[in-house]
Amino acid sequence: MTHLPELLAAVAAAGDPGPFALVRREGADHLELFTGAVRAVPRLADIPLPDGASGPRTLALVPFRQVAERGFACVDDDTPLECLEIDRHERVALSDALAALPDVPVRTADAAFDVDDDTYAATVGRVLAEEIGRGEGANFVIHRCLRATVEGPPLVAALAALRRLLLRERGAYWTFVVHTGTRILVGASPERHVSVGDGLVMMNPISGTFRHTGADADRDALLRFLADPKEVEELYMVLDEELKMMATVAEHGGQVVGPYLKEMSHLAHTEYLLAGRGTRDVREVLRETMFAPTVTGSPMENACRVIARHEHTGRRYYAGVLALLGRDDDGRQTLDAPILIRTAEISPTGGLRVPVGATLVRHSTPAGEVAETHAKAAGVLAALGLGPQAPASGARPPVRLAEDPEVRAALAARNAPLARFWLDQRDPDAPGLPGLAGRRVLIVDGEDTFTGMLAHQLGALGLAVTLRPWQAAGPVTGFDLVVVGPGPGDPGSPTAPKMAAMRDLLAGLLAEGRPTLAVCLGHQLLCGLLGLALHRRDAPYQGLQREVEMFGARRRVGFYSSFTARADADRLATPYGPVEVARDGADGAVHALRGRGFAGVQFHPESVLSPDGLAVLADLLTGLLPPAAGRLPATTGAAERA
């Protein structure tokens, strides 16, 4: 017998049941009941995870403002990082929970979005033109919040909403109520952010939203959705962004599994799973993965700046995570952290907040993204009595479109153009290329953690890699190669400190004749030093895959850029000697170049969109790093950070 009846009796009597959480995890035939004391801590590193018996130890409510721990921008709303220190953990059969939870209507008043449709649409238009169009990133998530007032006891309303979610929602990763005494969170999150168990780190990028009406889901409409370039590219971009995170928290990066179709009551999403081995403290894993690109954008650091520019209120817990920390039977740390989306926050006085957001990419339209925010709110609104109800489980069997052969084939086809480096299982002990194994390379990061993925690819080729942020001064001596990496921003800016610093670095490398590879932003700055004019594209190349001619070979690669250099000839005389150019035959856009001791590529060879990326790197590095006698051996593989 659990003490759920006692807890619910206290709620019904308008008493204080104390802090608790009721959680159903994906596929479980039971709920977990956690009770204990709640305390706030300032940092993720302070989340308690004591030694001792196996099982869950702490449930942390991580607000979006914690992203400041990484030095990223945010609108600081003072929302606390609260921790439920679990002193009692019980399992409740799903049937028992449904019988015990209150089955009452939830009444609300004064429901409205805090940002109206026209204002939100105007913000979407500005982000598309001023941020994506000017090279600040590939995609951004801008949120809005539905507000209302719950009539009657808020905790009763939340528990009744949980019952409805358990009955009517499907496909959720976590379905939950969390009551801390100062706030209530209730929701059905579709998305695992990150989990750690048995040394395996997993992430779950989800993107693309297909709206349907439950049992009447339209198979043909779904197939059209799966073929929609906007939806396909949106998923690829968040896949790349979470691979960047996996490059940091997993020893050999992440392996891609999928894609799959996640079906819910009103929506279906496309998703991948990422997996890799890691040994970091789970609180460090949480910190290094703040927060999912599906609720922020990419590249992550600049996405946070864009959000802060265009959202004028804090996000509270939206886009943060619930994080369940514990230990397994061998004493190893465990973590299970769903993203806080499709979640309502209710105050003790009945104030209701349902935040939702839309992912803006180059194909987005303001009207389409307004509609997406309404659709994403539908599941939570229905549970709270603010919208049409989905059919209850068993009332009408839902259509399982994921099992349809044509749907499965359409999903499988999405992997055909992707880089096998990230899809296939890799041998971390495989030897590198002759002539490259043991060579030392420094990657200078221009605020885009694509550099982490690049480090794993260079490690697979046999090089020993050191990562250094652009603003960290340090010598370049002792390295066989310097890679000046990607990042957001306008490469033509005469005053931006980052551009000036990276431009000076490149000028010094060229003057000294040090082997240099420049990628994306680095390539643009290199082109400027070589005397080529830079141009902002009319249509951004953000998340775009193209086949390009490159020094006698056709290469399929992925672009994330709004700027490009142009050249009117295949060979140029420059202050640093003759340069060979691989350019677009139509507009002269420079896709790659190489000279004596240096090379640059506008695309991202490390991207999952670059199936020929590893071959490109191997070709360029073989030319940049001719065999050298008397080299000292070095450990290959994982990147060091300078």
UniProtKB/TrEMBL annotation:
MF terms in GO: anthranilate synthase activity
Domain Chorismate-utilising enzyme C-terminal: 118-376
Top-level EC class: lyase
Domain of life: Bacteria
Listed GO biological process terms: L-tryptophan biosynthetic process
Catalysis: reaction(s): chorismate + L-glutamine = anthranilate + pyruvate + L-glutamate + H(+)
Keywords recorded for this protein, A-Z: Lyase
Assigned EC number: 4.1.3.27
SUPFAM superfamilies (UniProt xref): ADC synthase (SSF56322), Class I glutamine amidotransferase-like (SSF52317)
Descriptive protein name: anthranilate synthase
Organism: Micromonospora citrea
